[in-house]
UniProtKB/TrEMBL annotation:
Its cofactor is Zn(2+). Belongs to the mannose-6-phosphate isomerase type 1 family. Zn(2+) binds at H96, E113, H170. It comes from Secundilactobacillus kimchicus JCM 15530. The lineage of its organism: Bacteria, Bacillati, Bacillota, Bacilli, Lactobacillales. This is Mannose-6-phosphate isomerase. GO terms for biological process: carbohydrate metabolic process. Its EC number is 5.3.1.8. Residues 5-107 form the Phosphomannose isomerase type I catalytic domain. Residues 237-313 form the Mannose-6-phosphate isomerase cupin domain. Keywords: Isomerase, Metal-binding, Zinc. PANTHER family: FRUCTOKINASE, TRANSCRIPTIONAL REPRESSOR MPRA.
Length: 320
């Protein structure tokens, strides 16, 4: 019985920066590193186990060959993907498909996601939702590039949480560092990319206007979040989201606490501070940026220290 610590996989992005190194100590490949995939079974960047008997094996491999670690869960792929994103400049305005559209057109899961804002520069903003009232109006405004009337912009600060269901037009804005919990999918339809040129190709990145118009929810409706906080000795839990695909919580550890695993398996990332994880009598040091999976054969875990973690687990009705 042991936790599965993950080795992150990094992705160069036109909008990326260097905060994944300066804020988390990651050894990034260049100063345009936009994404650290920190717990992933996706084929575009599966993370490998860094410790124990499965060291060197990827999460994707374990999902196929050791299903007992996940209570023999069904499903072709590990269902969740956890990232940290560094938006040195604005991401493209984009939208993701739901499961049905993605299965038909992309042959993978849809992409519902959420963001916990780790850091935001003064004046930082999100692009979130749109102002169109009908699909025809949406199409007209996109084709006219009437972004000032179409797009909603929202000021953002550290500690905020946003739920981004599939079909939501969105983008992280310049100066935001965020932890993203999402379905394990890499299907993104770009609506607008600020006419930027890729330094490597000298060309504008492709847009996907037909697909974007097909999948965008019209009209946009902000989801209602039921955020609730509970406290016990050594630990404060803030339940951020219950979605059809995953639950997300923030844990603030201020001493020592012992907890039961909350689902068949549970994902954790330390976003601040440091401490110790104890499983089956063995201690594992935790530092900012550490990410691990508590598998099915681990019934309980102990945390000691002063730290904040984001944890998530698959929605059980979807996972089975």
């Amino acid at each position: 019985m042991e936790p599965l610590f993950m080795t992150p996989v990094f992705h160069h992005k036109i909008w990326g920066g260097s905060k994944l190194q300066s804020q988390f100590g990651f050894k990034i490949p260049d100063d345009q590193t936009g994404e650290a995939w920190i717990i992933s079974g996706h084929s575009h960047g599966p993370t490998a186990v860094a410790n124990g008997r499965f060291k060197g094996q990827t999460l994707a491999e374990l999902w196929q060959t050791h299903k007992e670690l996940f209570n023999n869960e069904a499903g072709a792929v590990f269902p969740l993907l956890i990232k940290i994103l560094d938006a040195k400049t604005d991401l493209s305005i984009q939208v993701h498909p739901d499961d049905a559209y993605a299965a038909e057109h992309e042959h993978e899961l849809g992409k519902t996601e959420c963001w916990y804002i780790l850091q935001a520069d003064p004046g930082a903003k999100l692009y979130y939702g749109h102002q169109a009232t009908t699909r025809d109006e949406l199409k007209t405004m996109i084709e006219a590039q009437d972004w000032s009337h179409l797009l909603r912009q929202i000021p953002v600060k550290a500690g905020e949480f946003y739920y981004v269901p599939s079909g939501t037009i969105h983008a992280l804005g310049q100066g935001i560092l965020a932890l993203e919990t999402q379905q394990s999918s890499d299907s993104t339809y770009r609506v607008y990319d600020f006419d930027r040129l890729d330094k490597k190709t000298g060309q504008k990145r492709a847009l996907h206007l037909k697909q974007a118009i097909d999948v965008t929810r019209v009209p946009h409706v902000d989801p209602v979040l039921d955020i609730a906080t509970t406290s016990e000795p050594g630990l404060t839990k803030t339940h951020l989201l219950s979605s059809p695909y995953f639950d997300v919580e923030k844990w603030r550890c201020t001493g020592s606490t012992t907890q039961r695993r909350q689902a068949d398996y549970q994902l954790f990332t330390v976003i601040d501070g440091n401490g110790t994880l104890t499983v089956d009598g063995h201690d594992y040091p935790l530092e900012k940026g550490a990410s691990f999976v508590i598998p099915y054969d681990v019934d309980q875990l102990a945390l000691t220290g002063s730290m904040v973690l984001i944890t998530s687990w698959p929605n059980q009705t979807q996972a089975k």
